[in-house]
């Protein structure tokens, strides 16, 4: 068996391991190894970003979705979701509130909802960028055509989040219906990069049927794609999905993977996700201490937050955005970090 600390040192020096070495590391690390890894990840994050934590104001503007992913609470087949769509005015009002609170990146996220045509989205993007020229705009709208992405980019969108969920074709097929393919997801990521978006990918930790080999493939894919942003979180079941009875992903393993990703992509923007905070009350703090440098408070109107439930017991569905921001500010201060009112672009290597 390889010495795990030696593997961690190699990963730090080279920014990559082989598939077999990743499997070895993920399967055999001890608590002490995890601490060793975490310390290295934190040092690297601090080297590029000091103790700054960037915020992203999340606006979940529609929970309609044409897709039927087996893990997602807003999947098409869930008849018990109260569906909603925010108007352009609603969205701009969220931005106004967020801007006053110090947010300098807005994330427009929604299900794949055909109601919002390219023209409508371009109109919304243009209005946000005109109203807040010093802010970055991230889109998370799923799989679209090259032409759609091109129009969004030309309208002023800066970043695009599209989690690949798993880099293994067979595993992807166990999480999605046959009309969704990993090949198309990867094609979308490639198109987004070619158009000059700051691109984000990511995966679930502990999703049904996942193996350590699958996770190793995810890490290799991240290295190959070289994204600006990497979002991971533990799989959390939703009671209205085919995976309702599956157990949640491992909190500890998620933290270890966050640290590994920081070593793979030293200057990437890596959030301590809501899912991490949902599975453990100190999840977001420990995510930051494991190498993450972004948090994403919710700016959506309180009246609709509960409806955007991708998994059960999602946190922060009741707090006003302001309360959530100040609560996070205090939490970050307690662990020696500071939330800053900046766009928070990726620092060059």
Lay out the secondary structure:
Blueprint: H1 4-14, H2 19-28, H3 31-49, E1 52-55, E2 57-62, H4 88-100, E3 105-110, H5 118-131, E4 136-140, H6 146-155, E5 159-161, H7 169-175, H8 182-194, E6 198-205, H9 212-225, E7 229-234, H10 251-264, H11 274-279, H12 283-289, E8 294-295, H13 302-305, H14 321-334, E9 338-340
Parallel strand pairs: 1-8, 1-9, 2-3, 3-4, 4-5, 5-6, 6-7
Helix pairs in contact: 1-3, 2-9, 3-10, 5-6
List keywords for this structure.
about 350 residues; alpha/beta; six-stranded parallel β-sheet; 9 strands
Walk me through the structure.
The protein is of the alpha/beta class. Helices cover 45% and strands 12% of the residues. The chain contains 14 helices and nine strands. The protein has helices at 4-14, 19-28, 31-49, 88-100, 118-131, 146-155, 169-175, 182-194, 212-225, 251-264, 274-279, 283-289, 302-305, 321-334; strands at 52-55, 57-62, 105-110, 136-140, 159-161, 198-205, 229-234, 294-295, 338-340. A six-stranded parallel beta sheet has the order 2-3-4-5-6-7. The chain has a three-stranded parallel beta sheet with strand order 8-1-9, covered by helices on one side. The model has no long low-confidence stretch (mean pLDDT 96).
């Amino acid at each position: 068996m390889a010495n795990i600390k030696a593997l961690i040192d190699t990963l730090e020096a080279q920014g990559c391991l082989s598939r077999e070495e990743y499997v070895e590391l993920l399967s055999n690390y001890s608590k002490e190894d995890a601490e060793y890894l975490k310390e290295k990840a934190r040092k690297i994050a601090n080297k590029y970003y000091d103790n700054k934590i960037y915020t992203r104001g999340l606006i979940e503007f529609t929970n309609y979705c044409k897709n039927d992913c087996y893990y997602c609470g807003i999947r098409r087949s869930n008849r018990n979701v109260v569906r909603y769509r925010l108007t352009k005015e609603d969205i701009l009002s969220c931005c106004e509130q967020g801007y006053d609170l110090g947010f300098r990146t807005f994330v427009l996220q929604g299900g794949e909802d055909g109601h919002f045509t390219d023209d409508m989205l371009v109109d919304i993007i243009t209005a946000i960028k005109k109203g807040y020229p010093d802010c970055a705009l991230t889109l998370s709208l799923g799989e679209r055509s090259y032409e759609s992405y091109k129009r969004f980019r030309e309208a002023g969108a800066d970043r695009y989040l599209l989690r690949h969920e798993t880099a293994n074709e067979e595993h992807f097929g166990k999480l999605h219906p046959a009309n969704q393919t990993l090949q198309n997801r990867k094609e979308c990521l490639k198109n987004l990069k070619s158009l000059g978006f700051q691109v984000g990918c990511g995966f679930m930790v502990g999703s049904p049927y996942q193996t350590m080999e699958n996770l190793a493939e995810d890490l290799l894919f991240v290295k190959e794609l070289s994204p600006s942003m990497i979002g991971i979180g533990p799989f959390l079941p939703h009671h209205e999905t085919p995976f309702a009875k599956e157990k949640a992903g491992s909190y500890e393993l998620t933290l270890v993977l966050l640290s590994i990703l920081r070593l793979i992509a030293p200057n990437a923007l890596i959030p301590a996700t809501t899912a991490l905070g949902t599975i453990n009350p100190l999840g977001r703090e420990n995510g930051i201490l494991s190498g993450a440098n972004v948090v994403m408070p919710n700016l959506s109107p309180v009246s609709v937050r509960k409806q955007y439930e991708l998994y059960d017991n999602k946190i922060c569905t009741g707090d006003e955005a302001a309360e959530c921001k100040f609560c996070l500010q205090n939490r970050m201060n307690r662990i020696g970090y500071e939330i800053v009112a900046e766009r928070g672009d990726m620092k060059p290597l």
